[in-house]
Amino acid sequence: MKYIVSSVLLLPLLCITSSSLQVAVIGTTGNIGRTAIQQLSEANISTKCLLRHDLDSTSPSATIATSLAKLPNVQMIKGDISKPETLPALIEGCDAILCLQGPPKPNPIKSMLPFLSNENDTSHSRIVNYVGMQNVINAVKQYNPNMRIVRLTGKGEEPYSIFSILINMLGNLAKAWNYEGEQLLRTSGVKYSIIRPGLLKSSEEYNIPPKAKMIRDNGGNMKVTPVTYDQIADVCIQSLNHENCNQCTLTVMNVEEAEGVDDYSTLLEKVENDKKGRFPDSLLDQHKMGARIGFVATVAFLFGVLNTVKSVIGFLLGFI
Ligand SMILES: NC(=O)c1ccc[n+]([C@@H]2O[C@H](COP(=O)([O-])OP(=O)(O)OC[C@H]3O[C@@H](n4cnc5c(N)ncnc54)[C@H](OP(=O)(O)O)[C@@H]3O)[C@@H](O)[C@H]2O)c1
């Protein structure tokens, strides 16, 4: 299948509108996580949501979680993806788990200088995007081997693209570790669907043109476009309807209206499994090299700017 496309937002979640279905969510308080929980609650699907904070604390995340916890069918479970012992209680009784977590933005200076950045810090992308996914896979294999893991990542197979370089350089190699986490899933033997969205925006920031939705399976390359949180939460949830979405890596973007359609479910029913040998075992070294090249280029650029400013000042002072 080449392209599969869709435009009605918040599709009716046909077959999965079942009160017996239970879905675990990691990334509860995030932009995508909270949107997915709202959509699941509206569809009368129970959720068990991993939460790192106490509900009675005053942090912004706790405030978001407090309002989510008031929705019907929503249960909060205290835990952290970096703490494997907290995951069995989350996945118990669930049919699927949505892994929508992402690391917090690091200090860019620390990110650019690897000797200042601790890869074992629980907020580092290695822990959140890679070790955390290994923890989820281990828990699923041991306690609930039939459940599907849905993981949100992003385009990550072009280590030398400007987007990858910037995100890796300033974001603790977030793209690199997301790709490595994907590979854990693809080689794990568990049921999985990997969703690679474009640039995430809220519905207020971006109007989706009618009939603009598109999905490409097998991690197919597509031009990066904005996509809304609603759209991506919808794809993650609707993928659970389709058994053929098991063992799939899906790129999700918006396209020109002439190329798109308006219904994710008609697209999802056509997706095919990831092809063996299609995905490189690891791209970690290339991603690290791209980030290093980006750092050197940034330093060279800043030196160039400084020298130019110095020359201009020297030139102007010559007139005084
Ligand atoms: N932004 C984009 O344009 C874009 C594009 C493509 C892909 N993505 C990917 O999409 C994912 C989600 O994006 P988003 O905008 O929803 O992220 P977000 O708003 O930053 O939310 C991240 C969520 O992950 C949680 N989290 C962080 N560390 C955790 C841990 N150790 N254990 C459990 N939960 C943890 C955070 O919880 P706390 O509240 O407790 O911190 C928060 O709920 C990310 O992986 C990102 O890489 C983003």
From TrEMBL:
The keyword Membrane applies. SUPFAM superfamilies: NAD(P)-binding Rossmann-fold domains. Keywords: Membrane, Signal, Transmembrane, Transmembrane helix. InterPro entries: NAD(P)-bd_dom, NAD(P)-bd_dom_sf. The keyword Lipid biosynthesis does not apply. Residues 27-243 form the NAD(P)-binding domain. It holds the Pfam family NAD_binding_10. The chain crosses the membrane at residues 293-319. Residues 1-20 form the signal peptide. This is NAD(P)-binding domain-containing protein.
